[in-house]
Design a protein that fits this description.
single chain; about 350 residues; alpha+beta; Uridine Diphospho-n-acetylenolpyruvylglucosamine Reductase, domain 2; Uridine Diphospho-n-acetylenolpyruvylglucosamine Reductase, domain 1; 3 domains; 6-stranded antiparallel β-sheet; 4-stranded mixed β-sheet; 19 strands; about 30% helix; about 25% strand
Length: about 350
């Protein structure tokens, strides 16, 4: 039997209000790099930006909405996800490079939609003799995810290069924002809060509503600025090759994982702390702290989300007990626990 939300979306699909792919009770394990995950109540892959706008306008207010690109940096609990999963892999993948209209001849502007893979972004930039985007080749996700968490690798960070972003809210409205409107930190991006101190009660209530609406905004595209020089192609391709070789040597790239599990604490490394605590290689059922890199958890085969989450909690508790350092997860965890 369909849920109320499923009925609303099915009717919209049948009436031609939305296109794209709509699925109900779809297993998310095939859409995550951990190969783990329960079912999505509603799974939607839009045809394009306009289709996505129509979809968001139809969804009832308050419906939980989650986005998945390549499915890295994400743990979906075994009990599944209520609401709507928006899947952008293979769509929202336009990328435009413009160097001719920039006053500074050594600068280039790249605009990429949320579904563009970071590795493709890096390669396209290199092919156009553009420097500085090589670090994106080491991020196994999309531009949308990179913007949402200020993703980085090998010393590079996404928001160091952002000029502006286009966002969409749950009403399907488009908003263009600049970096000045965000709090940007290590693996953290958030719209700046509004100061409500000197406003009356009615205005504060209105502002509270606006603030809640702002939190329901997602990145549709980003515009970036990078350098260009005559030796760019050769330099960038060599750097990408070097970074990918280093990644393969130090990370479990051939095993199912979701990337780094924890943020590095100030002046230290999560992997070092985890290894120091003797946890490297520890398994819970088929989930294992990688023997190759302690800040990765691998799925050795048929691991469950509860196994991975148990390992995450074990790491947090042990590192805090032994080192008095609180580790924060870089991995996003969504969904419900499985009820036995």
């Amino acid at each position: 039997m369909k849920t109320k939300l499923q009925k609303i979306l099915q009717e919209a699909k049948d009436n031609g209000q939305i296109n794209g792919q709509l699925k109900f009770n779809e297993s998310l394990s095939r859409y995550t790099t951990w190969r783990i995950g329960g079912e999505a109540e509603c799974f939607y892959k839009p045809e394009n930006e306009i289709d996505l706008q129509r979809m968001l306008k139809i969804i009832p207010e308050g419906t939980a909405v989650h986005w998945i690109g390549l499915g890295s940096n994400l743990l979906v609990r075994d009990g599944g996800v209520k609401g709507v999963i928006i899947y952008t892999n293979g769509v929202l993948n336009e990328l435009d490079i413009n160097c001719s209209e920039i006053e500074e001849k050594d600068k280039c502007i790249i605009t990429a939609q949320a579904g563009v893979a970071c590795a493709i972004f890096a390669r396209k930039a290199a092919n156009n003799s553009i420097n500085g985007a090589e670090f994106l080749s080491g991020i196994p996700g999309t531009i949308g995810g990179a913007l949402a968490m200020n993703a980085g690798a090998f010393g590079g960070e996404t928001w160091r290069h952002v000029v502006k972003v286009k966002m969409i809210n749950q009403k399907g409205e488009l908003i263009v924002r600049t970096p000045e409107e965000f709090e940007i930190q290590y693996r953290h991006v958030q719209l700046k809060a509004v100061d409500f101190k000197n406003t009356d009660l009615k205005t504060r209530k209105l502002n509270d509503t606006l603030k809640k609406n702002e939190q329901q905004e997602w990145f549709l595209s980003g515009t970036f600025c990078f350098e260009k020089d005559a030796q760019g192609l050769k330099k960038s391709k060599q750097e990408i090759k070097r970074l990918l070789t280093r990644r393969a040597e130090t990370q479990p790239t051939k095993q199912a994982n979701a990337g780094s599990v924890f943020k590095n604490p100030d002046n230290d490394y999560a992997a070092r702390l985890i290894e120091l605590c003797g946890l490297k290689g520890l398994s819970i059922n088929n989930a294992q702290i990688s023997p190759k890199h302690a800040n990765f958890i691998i799925n050795k085969g048929n691991a469950r989300a509860e196994d991975v989450e148990a390992l995450i909690n074990k790491i947090k508790e042990t590192v805090f007990a032994q080192c008095q350092i609180k580790l924060d997860t870089e991995v996003r965890i969504i969904g419900e626990h499985l009820v036995n």
